[in-house]
Automatic annotation (TrEMBL):
Species lineage: Bacteria, Bacillati, Actinomycetota, Actinomycetes, Kitasatosporales
Protein species of origin: Streptomyces adustus
Pfam families on file: Pvc16_N
Biased composition (Basic residues): 213-224
Official protein name in the record: DUF4255 domain-containing protein
InterPro entries, per database record: Pvc16_N
Signal sequence region: none
Length: 224
């Protein structure tokens, strides 16, 4: 997955941002020792952080159907991982570096997702976009000065590119066979009144059933 993002970024920078020029595109750590060896105009994309994009995490399962519309499996939703790249330009003159950074910024901010024409391998087969952001403020737990300090180099103008890669196939569960016939319990109501029961039985509909006894007539006393 990560190497496929590298190849997509290499094609995007070379073809769209640099216009097919002979400027080198590299992915090395921009340490002081590495910078001393650079002798040609270079754009460097250093992958310095990998972490899950928790804002894009979702729960639940999605169904997979066959040609008859029957559920054959259930899949967990994809999980997105943020790949953070530190983009720098290396030339003999700071003005030329600034021009390169301007071209890179204009190119990368033109789309909210990686162009599909540059995707290869498993990324090209994904039915999902590959979001990316450029030059956003860093999170509170990280600063670019700390990155440069960890590399042992001097602070340099840079762009922060974050690519959120969806990782699918994290887990699938086979679905049970479909229900082909109606099952369940049959409920009915029985007649508990037994009209043929013995006389004197209470509540069975016999002659002595209180429900069937005649009620005495009500009399009224009339004042004369």
């Amino acid at each position: 997955m990560i190497h496929e993002v590298d190849e997509a970024l290499r094609a995007l920078v070379r073809n769209d941002a640099l216009g097919g020029t002979q400027i080198s595109v590299m992915f090395d750590a921009p340490t002081r020792e590495w910078a001393a060896k650079v002798n040609a105009p270079t754009v460097n994309l250093y992958l310095y952080d990998i972490r899950e994009d928790m804002r894009r995490r979702s729960r639940g399962l999605s169904n997979e159907y066959d040609e008859r519309g029957t559920v054959v499996a259930r899949h967990r939703p994809p999980r997105y991982f943020k790949l953070s790249y530190l983009i720098t330009a290396w030339t003999r003159r700071p003005e030329d570096e600034h021009r390169l950074l301007s071209s890179l910024l204009l190119c990368l901010m033109a789309s909210d997702a990686m162009p599909t024409r540059h995707l290869t391998g498993s990324l090209a087969e994904l039915p999902l976009p590959v979001p990316m952001t450029i030059a956003l403020p860093p999170p509170e737990d990280r600063s670019f000065a700390d990155v440069w300090s960890a590399l042992g180099g001097e602070l340099k103008p840079s762009l922060d590119l974050v690519v959120s890669v969806p990782l699918v196939g994290t887990g699938a569960m086979a679905a049970g066979p479909p229900v082909t016939e109606e099952g369940g319990l049959r409920l009915g109501v029985e007649n508990t009144r037994d009209t043929g029961g013995p006389a004197g039985a209470r509540g069975t509909g016999g002659a002595d059933d209180p429900a069937r006894r005649p009620r005495p007539a009500l009399s009224r006393r009339v004042r004369e």
